[in-house]
Design a protein that fits this description.
Helices cover 45% and strands 21% of the residues. The chain is an alpha/beta fold. The strands form 2 sheets. Strands 3-2-1-4-7-12-11-8-9-10 form a 10-stranded mixed sheet, with helices on both faces. It has a two-stranded antiparallel sheet with strand order 5-6. Helix 5 links the parallel strand 8 and strand 9. It is elongated and about 70 Å long.
Length: 285
């Protein structure tokens, strides 16, 4: 890992995420790219075009000063970084920066506020999770500020993105135990046995020794995943996208540990077909 992109709205939650990213950069000897994006549009009744342009430039310059202070306060002195203010919509700016900079990972907060118009950043985070072509770690105010080498809880959906989220988290957390969690419709013992066998076959061979499996006889809920992460003292929840939108929203809101997400576009761009099982290659196409 060489470059971590950290979008920020300079809220308390975003500052929390930036401190987490800083600790992560120290651990992996990585560089941070911290970006603040806003359209910087003054009120429509502001006045003449010249006054409008001048006021916009003032807003951008003020944002640069605030961003520099925000970074200095939340990034460790030993961590190299660049800070950029971008005059465009947050989602477009983040996606472009991730692509243009060659970022390996995005770390961002949830449920803060963004921009001069005070838009909730939660919706921006959810959009980035769906659209980014690199893994995303979402941090809320309850998450630890330093990466913990604890167990990884991974809700399993038997998709390529679910598989790669597990692989990424496993590499990210060295030799931490992996707890795979799957909800099913069937309530018979034979249904559970069938799912456990399927899980065993699905887990990459190099990770099986680290993996523990759990099956419940109903669709998994965010509350169950979060509670399981708490009970097992997990350092991360790893989940593949697509996943039910309500599940992701609730995980981002309720989780007391970072939530790592990885979507199908990221799989298609970053994972060689030789590393995927045949069924996963077919599903990614």
């Amino acid at each position: 890992m060489k470059l971590i992109l950290v979008p920020t709205d300079m809220s308390d939650t975003a500052a929390h995420a930036l401190r987490y990213a800083s600790a992560l950069a120290e651990r992996f000897d990585a560089h941070l790219l911290v970006v603040y994006a806003d359209s910087f549009v003054p009120p429509t009744d502001f006045g003449s075009t010249a006054a409008f342009t001048l006021r916009r430039e003032e807003l951008i310059e003020n944002a640069r000063e605030q961003l520099e202070l925000h970074v200095e306060q939340n990034v460790a002195p030993r961590v190299p970084y660049d800070a950029r203010v971008l005059a465009q919509s947050p989602v477009d700016a983040i996606l472009e920066q991730a692509c243009d900079s060659g970022a390996d990972l995005i770390v961002m907060g949830t449920h803060g506020r963004t921009g001069l118009r005070r838009l909730f950043v939660g919706s921006v985070t959810e959009a980035i999770i769906q659209l980014a072509t690199v893994p995303v770690i979402a941090i809320n105010s309850s998450s630890a500020e330093k990466p913990l080498i604890g167990k990884v809880v991974s809700p399993v959906a038997f998709t390529t993105s679910s598989l790669e989220a597990l692989r990424y988290a496993a590499a990210f957390t060295d030799n931490a135990p992996l707890l795979l969690f799957r909800g099913i419709e069937g309530t018979e013992v034979k249904d559970t046995i069938h799912e456990l066998i399927a899980l065993q076959d699905w887990i990459p061979s190099e990770l099986r020794a680290r993996a523990e499996m759990r099956v419940v006889p109903h669709p998994m809920t965010a509350e169950e995943i979060v509670e399981l992460a708490k009970q097992s003292k997990a350092g991360m929840i790893a989940i593949g996208i697509p996943a039910p939108r309500h599940l992701i929203e609730e995980l981002l809101h309720l989780s007391t540990c970072p939530v790592l997400t990885l979507n199908e576009p990221t799989v298609r761009l970053t994972v060689p077909e030789r590393l995927l099982p045949l069924s996963a290659v077919a599903a990614a196409r």
